[in-house]
Write a structure and sequence with these properties.
The chain is mostly helical. The chain is built from 13 helices and 3 strands. Helix content is about 70%, strand content about 5%. Helix 6 runs parallel beside helix 9, helix 9 packs antiparallel against helix 10 and helix 11 runs antiparallel to helix 13. The mean pLDDT is about 85.
Length: about 250
């Protein structure tokens, strides 16, 4: 039984043009021709085509496929081992590329241009991106959000370490202020509240006094923020809220 070029193309999932090309270069010459000169393929031709497509799927160029199929001195296993090595190397390269793309996507999402190792070094076991979707949903359309994304996208590991160090130092001094029974409306507390605002302005976005006052309210109303500040010293979130309000009032009176 023999088959037309159109039938074979349908069997193999290739184009008629491809089969014509294989014939032209001598890779797959049909065993028969019709009286009208049309190509006719038998079962042996189909077996050869299957082998050609197998090697092509593995990435072998056509000239190498011809050698594999026609040179009796060639060891197909040696070629397959070499192809396996090449494919393994390519898979590893693609894996690294995929990881790099994933990292770039996360960096763009949160403005953190850090590797996973650097994130762990800076933030420890805390995930700085834990509430990324919520932050974007609540403030994604604001100028402050856009400015924060723009700035933090360029920060290095050392920049983030400075951010963390400044925040930790501020927390220690605020805790000491509370231990000394300084009132939130006192000069010392208002000074540290202003420093808190300036920290935001320096590293993230321009924080107005009114916006800072809103943040202070959130530090108490949102249990996550409250837990964060109260972990520095019990009651610090409420104390800071009042200090922020007093500081805002004296600057906007």
């Amino acid at each position: 039984m023999s088959y037309s070029v159109g039938q074979v193309a349908g069997f193999a999932g290739v184009t008629v043009r491809t089969l014509h090309h294989y014939d032209d270069i001598g890779l797959l010459v049909p065993s028969e021709r019709s009286r009208a000169g049309h190509r006719r393929y038998n079962d042996a031709d189909l077996d050869r085509l299957q082998q050609i497509l197998f090697y092509r799927e593995l990435g072998f160029p056509l000239d190498e496929v011809a050698v594999l199929l026609d040179d009796p001195d060639v060891d197909p296993r040696a070629h397959l081992r070499r192809r396996h090595e090449l494919l393994t190397a390519r898979i590893e390269k693609l894996r690294k590329m995929a990881a790099a793309v994933e990292h770039a996507m996360e960096a763009r999402k949160m403005g953190l241009n850090l590797t996973p190792e650097e994130k762990f070094e800076v933030f420890g076991g805390k995930d700085p991106e834990q509430y990324a979707d919520e932050v974007e949903e609540r403030w994604g359309g604001t100028d402050e959000y856009a400015e924060s994304q723009r700035r933090t996208a360029s920060y290095t590991k050392e920049d983030w370490k400075r951010v963390q160090a400044e925040a930790a130092d501020w927390g220690e001094r605020y805790g000491a202020l509370m231990a000394a029974d300084e009132p939130p409306t006192g000069e010392a507390a208002m000074t540290l509240a202003e420093e808190h605002r300036q920290h935001i302005c320096t590293w993230f976005y321009e924080c107005s006094y009114e916006l800072h006052r809103c943040l202070g309210e959130m530090y108490v109303s949102d249990e996550r923020f409250k837990a964060f500040y109260d972990a520095m010293r019990p009651g610090l979130a409420e104390h800071l809220k009042d200090a922020i309000a007093a500081n805002a009032a004296r600057h906007t009176a």
